[in-house]
Amino acid sequence: MRRFAVIGLGRFGFYLVKTLFEKGHDVIAIDAKRDIVQEIKDFCSQAVVANATDKDALASLGVPDVDVAIVAIGNPMEASILATLYLKEMGIGHIVVKAKSDDHAKILEKIGATDVVFAEREMAIKLANSLTSRNVMEFLPLAPDYSIMEIAPPKEFIGKTLAEIDLRKKYRIQVIAIKEFVPEKMVMVPGADFVIKDSDMLVVMGANEDLEALQKKKL
To answer: Could you confirm whether domain 122-216 is CATH 3.30.70.1450?
Structure first.
């Protein structure tokens, strides 16, 4: 079990708190609005009304002792910047901050944010890829030009081994895992002799253009 502090309980922060708590972690939920704090109290370890720009208040809540602090403040931007600065000064090793713009992200990184996320942008990219790629179930951008995808195998793959389809040679794509549903298990770094079933999902990694070519090509 890890200890988290989530500061800012908008939609992103609220569901983050709820999910972390449901996974068995200790979560402190913090927001300046009493009604939101009241709403989240049954879905976290501790729900507190506090101002994120009050360093003493954050310290008194035990925030310096958490493993990860997440700043999910929407507005104003200055509040997320100050909260991030204070968390860094408290010595918290892992600080995740939701950014509103590229300039906002640059400031956050300069003052000590470990990770900066663009929640709406990343969800939009994931949704767009899932809507426009018929057989792609999950999409995870790694870098501007590379991604990990979870893909349903084309019918031409069924009954063949990974060696036979040879994605690495033909498409410059690496199969890093296979999610089996019958029986349900995850096979990490499957061997070349793994035989693909119609119930399997392939977890593949490669350049975006190669992944797109695989999706479109009739094999």
So the answer is: yes
Residues 91-134: pLDDT tens digits? 999 999 999 888 999 999 999 999 998 877 766 666 566 555 55
The set of residues, in sequence order, having a beta carbon less than 8 Å from that of 94 and lying 6+ positions away, is 67, 68, 69, 114, 115
Return the C-alpha torsion angle 200, 125, 111, 55, nearest 10: -80
- pLDDT value at residue 135: 54
Is a pLDDT exceeding 80 seen at residue 191? yes
**C-beta separation of 120 from 137 below 8 A:** no
With contact defined as beta carbons under 8 Å apart, do 211 and 149 qualify?
A: yes
8 A C-beta contact, residue 214 and residue 171: yes
Q: Which CATH superfamily is domain 3-117 in?
A: NAD(P)-binding Rossmann-like Domain (3.40.50.720)
Domain map (residue ranges) of the chain: 3-117, 122-216
